[in-house]
Design a protein that fits this description.
Belongs to the serpin family. By secondary structure, the chain is α+β, with helices and mostly antiparallel strands. It has a single domain, classed as Antithrombin, subunit I, domain 2 (Antithrombin, Chain I, domain 2), CATH 3.30.497.10. About 35% of the residues lie in helices and about 20% in strands. The chain is built from five helices and five strands; from the N terminus they run H-H-H-E-H-E-H-E-E-E. The chain has a three-stranded mixed beta sheet. Helix 4 links the parallel strand 1 (about 50-60) and strand 2. The protein is globular. The model has no long low-confidence stretch (mean pLDDT about 85).
């Protein structure tokens, strides 16, 4: 997703993204990203007993903002992603529903919702969405007896106890 953001960036923002992503230019980044997208789309799936991998990227831009044709083409052709100009100002909830329908369709129903009700409003200008679903067998089966209750820190600073899957005993 950051590569997609870089494709639409310029100036200092672009330089920071390229540096963070370890790339020299947008062209280099787009080249690598194109190969990654192609590789992921060619994963042999469940019909052959292999893992299930579904992913989708999309961009929804407020229709009153300008959208360069070159960016539109890169999003569609390099990243094989959806890009739409939408009316967040008057139809924010409808756009949220559209995005949720898109992700449900793109992941064959495996992911039904990425935007809960009220998550976007009339001030929203851009939504970048990425959905990834993976289901595969472990090389080593997990032993449920190895589940340990440990502390987990929430974003609000609260600490809760949750079950963690482990494969090695604590020392």
């Amino acid at each position: 997703m950051l590569s997609l953001v870089a494709a639409g960036s310029k100036g200092e923002t672009l330089e920071q993204l390229l540096s963070f992503l370890g790339s020299q230019s947008k062209d280099d980044l787009n080249f690598v990203s194109s190969h990654i997208v192609s590789s992921l789309r060619n994963v042999e799936g469940a019909e052959n007993g292999g893992p299930i991998l579904s992913f989708a990227n999309g961009a929804w831009v407020e229709k009153t903002l300008g959208l360069k044709t070159s960016f539109d083409e890169v999003v569609k052709n390099v990243y094989r992603s959806q890009i739409e100009q939408v009316d967040f100002v008057n139809k924010a909830e409808e756009v949220a529903h559209e995005i949720n329908s898109w992700v449900k369709n793109a992941t064959n129903g495996l992911i039904r919702e990425i935007l809960p009700s009220g998550s976007i409003d009339q001030e929203t200008e851009l939504v970048l969405a990425n959905a990834l679903y993976f289901k595969g067998a472990w090389n080593q089966k997990f032993d449920p007896a190895m589940t340990k209750t440990k502390s987990f820190n929430l974003l609000n600073g609260e600490n809760v106890q949750v079950p963690f899957m482990t494969s090695k005993p604590d020392f």
